[in-house]
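Sample intake sheet
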Amino acid sequence: MWNYTDKVLDHFHNPRNVGKIENPDGVGQVGALACGDALTLMFKLDENGKIADVKFQTFGCASAIASSSALTEMIKGMTLEEAQKVTNQDIAEFLGGLPEEKMHCSVMGREALEAAIHNYKTGETTMRSVGDDPVICQCFDIHKSEIVKLATENHLTTVEQITNYCKAGGACGKCKSDIQEILNSVTHTEAATPKEEAKPRAMTQLQKMKLIEQTIETEVRPLLQRDGGDIELIDIRGNEVVIAFRGMCAGCRSAHITKQLLVEAKLKEFVTPEITVVEEGEA
């Protein structure tokens, strides 16, 4: 039994945006029923070039359904340029993590999105040029470029990791030596390329919201509930977090102290020092 997060289970049991769009602007199809996983993703743009509607149909496991559902929620309202920056790791993080053996489901979602955007821009239904991009895994039709991209973007170093991320090498196993050669080449190239000092990646608004929710749930709420109080997250406006105290904390004369020394202090510690907390109704 896989160890799924509550968010994965929620998106599996209550998937968002399932279905079809009439006359979509872009359609991407990846996987195949013969391989056990298949996904079709389609979107419709509004007059401003943003994703106004997105739907999916998938055949697969709980992780495949949850990853597809999560992706559609993530990209709604984005421009195509913004959506193209969503990675499979972003999908997994949105769900609170995926079992390592199920990471290929998040990869399938990202690939379907890439294919749909490519379809919108070119009208083509495939992104591959077989002559320049040989098939490495015949069982799952995985090309060399896919393995190189996964290894580079996700810092994969073993054949087992590649199998977890795209299934290559997971059936007959004849391609494992070829996969290892590709990994050796990728590792050698990265080692030979001078690297600039890594710059911290700016936290996206989506990541910030998730971290705020998590911090309140794990660092703040238990302390308040211990004394009969509670807290509700009302809104997030950039770095301003709007909350409301509930239970014994509602109307308490020390609420402003709790807000500053507990809620705001924890959010500054675990999210960003720029966070400010206001109570609902404050000017």
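Comment: The longest strand covers residues 37-45. DSSP finds ten helices and eight strands in the chain.
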